[in-house]
Prior knowledge:
CATH architecture of the largest domain in chain A: Orthogonal Bundle
Low-confidence stretches of chain A: none
CATH architecture of the largest domain in chain B: Orthogonal Bundle
Distance between the termini of chain A: 29 Å
Largest sheet of chain B: none
CATH topology of the largest domain in chain B: MetI-like fold
Mean pLDDT of chain A: 84
Number of helices of chain A: 15
Largest interface: A-B, 64 and 59 residues
Order of helices and strands of chain A: HHHHHHHHHHHHHHH
Structural class of chain B: mainly alpha
Distance between the termini of chain B: 39 Å
Mean pLDDT of chain B: 80
Number of domains of chain A: 2
Structural class of chain A: mainly alpha
Number of domains of chain B: 2
Helix content of chain A: over 70%
Low-confidence stretches of chain B: 1-9
Shape of chain A: flat
CATH superfamily of the largest domain in chain A: MetI-like
Number of helices of chain B: 13
Strand content of chain B: under 5%
CATH class of the largest domain in chain B: Mainly Alpha
CATH class of the largest domain in chain A: Mainly Alpha
Largest sheet of chain A: none
CATH topology of the largest domain in chain A: MetI-like fold
Oligomer: heterodimer
Amino acid sequence: MGRDYILIAALLAGIVAPFLSVGNAESWPTAAMALWIVALAAAAILLLPLSASWAAPLAIGGAAVGAVALYLLLDAGARGLAAPGLWLAMIALAFLVWRAMERSAALGARTKSRFLDLAAPILLGIWIVYLWQAIIVGFDVPHVLLPPPTEIAGAIFSSTGTLVADFVQTFIRSMIPGYAIGCGAGFLVGVLVDRIPFFQRGLLPLGNLASALPIVAVAPIMVMWFGFDWQSKAAVVVIMTFFPMLVNTIAGLAALGRFELDLMRTYAASYGQTLRMARLPAAMPFIFNALKVNSTLALIGAIVAEFFGTPIVGMGFRISAEVGRMNIAMVWATIVVAAVTGSAAYGAISLVERSLTFWHPSLRKVA
Amino acid sequence: MSETYLATRPAPPRRWGRLAGGKTFPVAAVVFVLIVVWYLGAIGLNSGRVIDGYDADDDMRNKWTTSDLIADTLSMNRPVLPAPHQVLVELDKSVLETAPTSNRSLLYHAWITLSAAMVGFAMGTVLGIVLAVGIVHVRTLERALMPWVIASQTIPILAIAPMIIVVLGAIGFVGLVPKAIISAYLCFFPVTIGMVKGLTSPELLQLDLIRTYSATPSQVFWKLRWPASMPFLFPSLKIAVALAVVGAIVGELPTGASAGLGARLLAGSYYGQTVQIWSALVLASLVAGLSVAAVGWAERLTLRRMGGRT
């Protein structure tokens, strides 16, 4: 592989940067300078032909040391456009981070380790949070506009109790019952409708149409019917999750091939046996697809329904109330909780899917 | 056995068979059943309040008949569940009989929402395609970015709608742009996923062939990958446009926007104007349905011009 221009650019920028002004910091603090030289040394060593198992940790380590160095500089008072040295160094660091992602992705591809596969996306995530923090602090962006990650973390730790109460109200009390009822009803109706081809042909296009409709908008009606507490939110979730499950169940039950059905008939299997032993297992990938789509939809439904009226607890209430008080860090803290909750629910369903539909081609490991 | 059985049996009435076998008739039947259920639901849900009204009224107490009850439940001023014809009358009043420029006209509100949704749809589509092109061409991006693109969708993103609206409002962006940003965020994901699939859909054989023509990377993209991705792009666009409408509506909720279908929903829920809520709901569904249909129409047109089989 030819010359590594990205690394050369990183090195050049990194060497020039300390000679430029750093604004109010006046000069680089000794510790920052020492760490920065270490980072540059790592970048220089990376120019040598190293094996990937050495290059990846070296690049990651170099990037981490460089990040600490620049944060010390930032802490010393380098601010805004008066400190071009800081931002040039930041660009050099970006190049180094890019190399680190590339090297760890290459290592992950070579060793086929699932853990190493995660290294590149995790690096990108950390880099974005770091850059976010650096830009907010470095350019003195008003925290009302966008609070720095440290402030969001502070809000999470200082109001854990409130966040937990919101989580219980929105996730445990509103979303889970609604999700269970909506998915269960969609599934049962799907199985029933499957027995009557007439209704199947009538319901499938309508079910598909329903997926295009802005169903969240029934929220005000549900709040009027079922009151402010969790029941109305659960009702919105039921309506939102019903149709994806219905459509997927019908499609899944039709997924089994002619051969398999004929085989079941030669065994003299009854309708119930065919359903239980052949058609439902074949429908599993579709049903899990609906369960995964619904997990996100359900959380959205529960939160949006809270915008229309709620007791003084719940994630949707917290977001709209704290936005009103311009307490944006708390809003972000709630969003972090919602994001983690949504991802965790999705991940949990994916894990169950993996263990139940291990036979499906999309999950089979290529040996 | 079944053949002989069929042969000796008189042929079934053909028109009925064809109707029941197609799609139109079953769909119509299900819609009819839904409307009947809606009417029954309206009578059932509204009767409690109507009977309360009768009991409070000396002339009517114990003298009302079932037909009185049904007539009154279907013509309440603020019903729990308005009957379909009440929604239609309200739609007629606010769509056809009001000038589309007046802020009493539902068309005016629908246009506010639709324009935000369309701007957001355009932004989200461009962002989605750019991300997909990057992911397909730069390996590191695929490794590092793709997991985040997927994770971004497990986040209940609509939840941050109020914050985007308020924060952008604080720096002077009000009206269309913040709503469009929410729509764009909802849109980009299906487009990215579909386009990554589409841009990687040319087989090795085709890629090898175009390489034997010594095509440049940009020629590979414009003459092979891009056309090959079209059948994948449009289904994603259909999902995206429906999401864009949802995003625009939800974007109107949190700050009490003064115009738009979401604002009508919110105003209706504040003042208990159920008929107004339902008519906004029906119009929102129409807007979403028509947008999806328009994308479907563009799809047929494009694929036909490309000589695809449709």
